[in-house]
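Hi Prof. W.,

I finally got the Response regulator receiver protein prediction working! I wasn't sure whether to trim anything, so I left the full sequence exactly as given:
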Amino acid sequence: MHPDTQKQSSVLLIGPEQGLLDGVAGVLAPVQNVQPVLIVGPVEQSARDPRLAEAAVVVVDLDPRRSESLAGLRTLMTSVSPGAPVIVLTDSFDDGLARWFLQIRVADFLRKPVQPKDVLRSCVQALRAGQGLPEQSGRIHALLPALGGVGNTTLAIETAMILLREGKEPSTCLVDLDFQSSSCAEYLDIQPRLNLEEVGQFPERMDQQLLEVMLSVHGSGLAVLAAPGRPAQPNDVSPDFVLRMLDVVSARFRNVVIDLPRRWDPWTDAVLGGSNAVFVVTDMTVPGLRQGRNLAKAIAERLPEVEPRVVVNRFQQTSLFGTGLRKADAESALGKVFAGAVANNYALVREAIDRGLPLESVKAGNTVTADLRKIVLAPDRP
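And this is what came out:
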């Protein structure tokens, strides 16, 4: 074995909260060739600690309300070895502070409260180049509509909420790639923060630091990456930017859910090809079933590595002697690409949208979420 693979890389953990540092050290300890080292106390007390020069990564729990801590962080940045990344954890955060972090070359910053596993991911990404650690990326679910008005955004939001609740820590991000309408933020009643005018044509600027600045967080803990809507404007967002953005997001989050527009953009092929699960959303009408089947077939032919499945939204069970479409009709029309049907509850969905809440917060145990959960978490999904 090459001797470099045996070298221990120290990760210096600095901050006043013993419990937080212990939690981070606990998830770092099992990582091969990584040695966590704790320094309990505010950053200014250890800004010139000689161990900084030997550390592979430095994690600082910072209180930006204390001017002496800000000065201490600036001093610390001059004490670390060249190229050693510094990761900052902070509970007080605004755009001005983010810009200052970028100016002093902080490698990454995370908002508190933060889960130790999120700090681990940031450290692993920082160590990857020097240690040859494998890249970790999140599981990506992409949803695109077969027709207009079939509820694609609603199901994308609910898919993200289902994955969020299934996880042991909040590590799910909803990405709105319909830059013209940008409905995800509207449905959740949050402010979209992705500034396409600033970064849309400059993919090289998108990194973990900028991602943190441009994420919105719903009260449920769901992270949302969405830009303000651009109605009546052509889609001039660089494909390189979209793909770079998704790379950064998938490195940061365990689960990524993408709300795609109906139109086919220059980056759609790459987004679908990079997704773990692709769902075509349609409704329970004859044209809807046909369009869903045709779109799924077209995607499979265009991208052989993708296995799209069709979700039939707004399904309403008819009586035995009724004249409406039955679930068996959908199964027959769609064949093996049929993923499942989601119940119709227009009143519930409308109330949730008007209140900016997930469906479960409006009515726990509702049939829409229950049906979708069976599809999203189906055991036959890879």
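The chain has two domains: 9-131, 139-377. Does that look reasonable to you?

Thanks,
D.
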